[in-house]
Design goal:
The chain is α/β, with parallel strands linked by helices. It contains eight helices and twelve strands. Strands 5-2-9-4-10 form a five-stranded mixed sheet, sandwiched between helices. It has a four-stranded mixed sheet with strand order 8-7-6-12, with helices on one face.
Length: 252
């Protein structure tokens, strides 16, 4: 048996104590349940009975909040896209800590800003859903967006599942028709930007030199959003700001 060096162990112990203190740091308070749901109308992911009882018509409350956090903390972004499987747990009322944020967003992702046309953004949405319906991929590919909303028909053919796309400029309350010809700055996590979950167009945009890694850790971005943008109050976004407004599930 090898005995640890006492001086080195003392240094490690001091860092471990600091980590424990940081993990327990309260960054905000959740005022209500924020349900986890990968896909609208499917409460299979949530651990909160009330979420099952209430139903999840527009998808996960916490996925939606996280997506707005990324859009706002990426600063230059007009829109954010987030795959539902990148968000891992429900949020229940009470104190919310740094450790909770890293349990919610446990992967080593950073946020990319990508310059994309409206046509490319819609193609990306279709790819995420197609990865589930056509490629047998994980339901975690289902897309959520901030400042962009739509209707989804999962019975429709590939390429025509998203309709009625609308966009809202930051700082306004008005939703307008989404412009397929406009170039938008889109925030997305590095997993998606590398083509994960079938998001081939995002990967192509990065390869084309139109993507920049902000090096913002996505969990830290969420922490900063809670503390600096929400003043510590964690709650659902308004129903009108959910990305999925209308939803038709698969036949059968």
């Amino acid at each position: 048996m090898i005995s640890p060096d006492e001086a080195a162990q003392a240094i490690l112990d001091s860092y471990s104590e600091q980590v424990d203190i940081l993990k327990g740091t309260v960054i905000g308070t959740a005022t209500e349940n924020l349900c986890l749901a990968r896909i609208p109308q499917n409460a299979g992911q949530t651990k909160i009975p009330d979420c099952v009882t209430e139903g999840i018509p527009h998808g996960g409350d916490i996925q939606q909040l996280v997506t707005y956090a990324f859009a706002d903390r990426a600063f230059d972004a007009d829109i954010a896209l987030q795959n539902s499987g990148g968000v891992r747990v429900d949020v229940t009322p009470g104190d919310y800590t740094v450790a909770d944020a890293y349990s919610l967003l446990p992967f080593a992702n950073t946020i990319y800003n990508l310059e994309m046309t409206g046509t490319e953004i819609k193609a990306s949405l279709e790819e995420g859903l197609g990865n589930i319906l056509d490629a047998g991929g994980s339901s975690g590919a289902y897309p959520y967006a901030a400042y962009l909303r739509w209707d989804v028909d999962m019975t429709a053919a590939a390429g025509s599942r998203f309709s009625n796309l609308e966009f809202r400029e930051k700082g306004t309350d008005t939703w307008v028709p989404f412009d397929m010809n406009r170039t938008y700055t889109v925030a997305a996590n590095s997993f998606m930007a590398s083509g994960g979950d079938g998001y081939a167009t995002l990967k192509a945009v990065v390869a084309d030199g139109r993507g920049v890694d902000t090096y913002i850790d996505y969990a830290q971005g969420f922490i900063d959003y809670i503390e600096q943008d929400l003043a510590g109050t964690i709650a659902r976004v308004p129903v009108t700001d959910y990305s999925t407004q209308g939803f038709t599930p698969p036949a059968g």
